[in-house]
Amino acid sequence: MLNAREQIKLLIDSLSQQENIFSKRKNQIVTMDGFSERNIIIFHQGIISGCRPNDDRLFVNFSAPRIFGLNQYIDTTLMYFRACTDISYECLPLVEAEKIINEKNLWQAVSVNHMLTISQMLRYINNMTGVSSYAQVINCLYQLQAEPEIIRLRRTAADYIVDKSGLSRSTVMKLLAQFQAEGKVTLRKGLLMDLKALE
């Protein structure tokens, strides 16, 4: 049986049309706006941030390959994408994607893609809503520690936490200073170098 990554690769290989693939540079934005019909977006290469449009809140960083927009019951305007590295991606009409999925019986791969997306959203909700500022900063530090090196070594801990949590910079800096004084966090030029067990 195929694992999650293999299922998503199978789905992408079946849906992708080479002539539709575009590239964007680091920090450029990709949205689902501007289409006359509903589309899906396939990310082929790179690391991408999923952000909330109304306040630029960082939901999740993910590595390609990934697909968004296949779930008709999730509003695709809930998130826009920002390239953390150079990326390649394509857009495909949802009706066309569904036709291919039906013809090739790819619904298991679609469900795996849905489960992965939903689990990431639930993880964000569980860690970032209805918890104290203290707990949010701790959760963000653990999430930052788990990010790819290209993000950890280019994003200060304070910037990452502010983008992820929406907390004020002064609150974040105060808590980071406290954790450093307690020897639980090591920062170098604002970058997270080491993280001890936090409670």
UniProtKB/TrEMBL annotation:
Domain IprA winged helix-turn-helix: 133-198
InterPro entries: HTH_46, RmlC-like_jellyroll
Superkingdom of origin: Bacteria
Protein name: Helix-turn-helix domain-containing protein
Organism: Lelliottia wanjuensis
